[in-house]
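re: ur question from earlier - yeah i can do the single chain one, its not a big deal. heres the input i used so u can compare w yours
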Amino acid sequence: MKLLVTGGAGFIGSAVVRLAVARGHHVINLDALTYAACLENVANVSGSDRYAFEHVDIRDRASLDRVFSQHRPDAVMHLAAESHVDRSIDGPGDFIETNITGTFNMLEAARRYWSDQGKPATFRFHHISTDEVFGSLPNDPSVKFTETTPYDPRSPYSASKASSDHLVRAWHETYGLPVVLSNCSNNYGPFHFPEKLIPVIILNALAGAKLPIYGDGSNIRDWLYVEDHADALLLVLEKGVSGRSYNIGGENECSNLDLVKTLCAILDQKKPKPSGSYADQITFVTDRPGHDARYAIDPTRIRTELGWRPSVSVQQGLEKTVQWYLDHEDWWRALQTRTGVGQRLGVKA
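and the output i got, formated as tokens:
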């Protein structure tokens, strides 16, 4: 297929681009190259004749129309979004403009293109979202998010993503646009932007800085290795039923405190300190407003309908991730310098 991937220079989007090109798809990577984007994330496919890059902002409708007309994609994978909860609390405006208005522009550009092509049933608009739209769960392992869980967003970020989900469903119901949706749990892995929890812990540990944990660290997340997620997204695009949504989880629930302790133990093994443990650097900080207690996904639908399950356990994934950051200091140091993120508290979890 020829895929138009928005946000393909970001963390999850670049994993999709790399995997799609490796599998023989043609990919148009559309990205505005805001602070969290990095073309180094797709450097290993940038020379392929199956890859093209468009420096376009999804808020620019005229440019979107031009991209659709010029490249004539078979499907859209819409990942472009502002995604950092802390930033949405400090400045929600960009989240409203990009996640809501930007998605509206994408839907309208896709609908125009789809209509001009004679409304082919094979076209797909895959909207990639988050489990955070469902709100917070009690600390009860039997209770998990399903595709029918009512929406209950608690932050400007999750509210903006919930709004975009509703727009996608409305364009399907009102105009017949063939769409699929997916809501994922917390991703981690290579090329993760250095303001998110796992890279913050790894890089602060290496720098001898404090390892900040919100509250008492009891908040629980379901962790999904990003390359597993990319595999699931392509499967949903190719095999998912139009109009249907699929929850994608890692089946790896873990509290923030346990996660950080695991990272410290891995670092102790891979790059020991002269004395003591990296866990000695753990520091508890004031909790952020509206911090959801627990996220957990019930992946029954994608497992039973599409036959997908994650292949990487959280222990395996964290070991791979730590090793990647140890091996790619040039990548994260350059990104820290360019963006000014440095060792700062930036915790999506």
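Confidence is low (pLDDT under 50) at residues 343-349. not sure if urs matches, ping me
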